[in-house]
Amino acid sequence: MGSTGSTGHHSAGNEAAGETESPPGTLHVLWRRLLNWLVTDWPGRTVLRTARSFTRTELFDRSMTVAAQLFTCVFPILILLATFATRRDADRIANAVSMPEESRLILQEAVTAAGNAGFGILGTVVVVVTATGVSRALTRAFAIIWGLPRPKSSLRSVWRWIAVVLALAFSLLMVRSVGQLVSGVPPEAVWPAAVTLVSDLAMALFIPWVLLSGTVRPRLLLPGALILALVMLAARPVMAAWLPQALETSADQYGSIGVAFTYLALLYTVSFAFLATAILGQVIATDEGRLGRWIRADTAVAREEPDARSGTLTRGTPPP
Q1: Class of residue 6 by CB neighbours under 10 A (exposed 0-12, middle 13-18, buried 19+)
Q2: 243 and 265 Cβ atoms separated by less than 8 Å
Q3: What gap in Å lies between CA 224 and CA 286, rounded to an integer?
């Protein structure tokens, strides 16, 4: 009887020990499954590589740099266009950037006082050349994203910088104008959205392609450009509803400096979305899976992660 009781006691103890040891084993299995998902499955692999690329490119700092360059580069171009334009055209420019009433009056006075000779040839050249800072900042960002050597500035690249600045300025004006032009065409909600989508897609393809001198093929840039266009399609109505009210509030409370900070906050958001979607597009296009091979059309591309120190990729290895 004592032996039986002792055996039962040990058996119960073993069952209790097994119950206490099972959770660590379960956690170990779950952890291994998570690691396997991150390494082998496409969604986990994409998330992991994208997070690594965010860190490698210093996304937050680089987005602020691009936003500051946009603020100091594109706005002078818009003011330059307004100075050479009529009062009605100046109003269109002000509407395109949701300019508050106080700033509109200053812009109209500048147009009236300056006339068509306000800047002159020399002033125009200085403004355009100075505005290329955003192009150089974007070139460095895209070179890091795609693992290319650090670009060297040369006179042969000037036209690319100017082309990007002018494209950014004109797209800001044309999207709003064309959107208003087709807003009455039925179905009314479709055509403005289509114009915005196509415009953002074209700009997201054109800017990195021209800045990188065609080193990266457009079909590899297409995933990031399409993601950005979809993100901006959802974000534009929110920004259009928020920006005018935020500008008026900032102008009433803090004056011109408040307006400047509001524009800068908006540009930072757009810059972050632009670079983040470019990184995600690069990850998708260079992935070893079926989708990546389809995007690349099974051509030889870089399959390794860009080296953070040298900024280069291992190229010429056929995809699996």
Answers
A1: exposed
A2: no
A3: 12
Residue 311 has pLDDT above 50, yes or no: no
Directed axis angle between helix 256-285 and helix 218-254, to 10°? 160
CB burial class (10 A; 0-12, 13-18, 19+) of residue 185? exposed
Which residues does residue 301 pair with via DSSP β-bridges, in sequence order?
A: 317
Q: Which residue has the tokens 């002078």?
A: 76
Query: By the 8 A CB rule, do 319 and 292 touch?
Result: yes
Backbone angles phi, psi at 317, to 5 degrees: -90, 120
The answer to whether 272 and 60 have CB atoms below 8 angstroms apart is yes
Percent residues over pLDDT 70 in the chain: 62
Whole-model pTM over 0.85: no
Model confidence pLDDT, tens digit, residues 5-31: 544 444 444 444 444 444 555 766 676
Say how far apart CA 235 and CA 242 lie, in whole Å. Answer: 11
